[in-house]
Amino acid sequence: MKYFDYAATTPPDSDVVRTMAEIMEAHYGNPSSIHGYGERADQLLRRARSGCAAAIGVKPEEIVFTSGATESNNLAIKGAALRYQSRGKHIISTATEHASVYESFLQLQQWGWEVTWVPVDSDGRVSAQQIMDSLRPDTVLVSLMHVNNETGVIQPVAEIGNRLKREAPRILFHVDGVQGFGKLEAKPASWGADLYSLSAHKIRGPKGAGLLYVRNGVELTPLLSGGSQEQGMRAGTENVPLLVGMAKAMRLAEERQLDFARRTTVLRDRIMETIETIPGLVLNSRKDGAPHIIHFSYPGMKAEVALHTLEQLGITVSTQSACSSRSAEPSRVLLAMGRDAANAAGGLRISLGDEHTEEDVALLEQALHQMVAQLRPLERRM
Ligand code: PMP
């Protein structure tokens, strides 16, 4: 079985696993305790914080550790909206964001905030000008993803962040960086981002660990009440082993980013070219997208049927994003890109990791041809 679903999650790096296991057994102190066990754990936590900060070019005190990017996105969006509601209650995003951003916006809408959903073009890209045109005097927050988790499209976050800083410096800019870090250059402070979310398990770290970069001076209303951990922004005992694991995974991902992009771009381009030659399949991603994601549709075929056929052929891919793939709805992202329901219901994502080789890709290509040959008689009946 070949795994091509790295955008859903990655196999953890063995060194990362070893480090986490050692810490879990040997350094179980609570980092808030003032005795020796606590101090040792706190030292490890401080080192992890510095490592994570260095990997994205920010200061250690600007890192808030969380349980993953779902929490980081919720904290960034709701925490900023609640904290700065006296400035206004208008917030801006797109319909192609990850569920943890999209649903946070919908919840704020229910609580009385006004949302502008900025449209995307047929590639799923938002324009900086359209974001700027949607600003109002009562706008408090713009939230945008760096790389789309379904299609791999890259949003112009640096252009938007820098224009916001120049033209509307009081408006906060949040970037969901989950699918971009380790694949593209990711320096949120240089983009003018005030808030930036990451998740460890997309970069060969553990599940259940993430962070939110909170630019110095930005305040958030905490979503979890309790102790004063994480500068009062996120109560709860820090998960020291997982956070040390995340710091290590971030360092490795950052060091290997250029090499990762170079290797996967070659494989991605080859897979895209193959998909374009198979009658019945429609490519939805482009070569100027992220190096690790290829999205295509098989209109007239339920994505689920195609996925299970590929699985029987030894290839694991994904329908939509993992968080939404059990939903029967067509992809919200593809609908926002103007695709019809048949295209949006037949969407499949292939995502690559650092371990993939030309041989793996040859097996994938063979399986794609075979899948279509097998399913062709069923096409019209779906
Ligand atoms: N944002 C994006 C773009 C994602 O791809 C994901 C993972 N599906 C998340 C946020 C949520 O991350 P986590 O799994 O750490 O909650």
How would you classify the quaternary structure?
Answer: single chain
Task: Using the coordinates shown, work out and report the CATH topology of the largest domain.
Answer: Aspartate Aminotransferase, domain 2
State the name of the first-level CATH class of the largest domain: Alpha Beta
Silhouette: globular
Overall mean confidence score, pLDDT: 96
CATH architecture of the largest domain: 3-Layer(aba) Sandwich
Q: What does the main sheet amount to?
A: 7 strands, mixed
Number of strands: 12
| Terminal-residue CA separation | 27 Å
Portion in helices:
40-55%
Computed over alpha carbons, the radius of gyration is 21 Å
What low-confidence regions span 5 or more consecutive residues with pLDDT below 50? none
Question: CATH H level of the largest domain: which superfamily?
Answer: Type I PLP-dependent aspartate aminotransferase-like (Major domain)
Structural class: alpha/beta
Beta-strand share of residues: 5-15%
The count of helical stretches stands at 12
- H and E order: EHHEHEHEHEHEHEEHEEHEHHEH
Heterogens: 4'-deoxy-4'-aminopyridoxal-5'-phosphate
> How many structural domains does the protein architecture include?
2
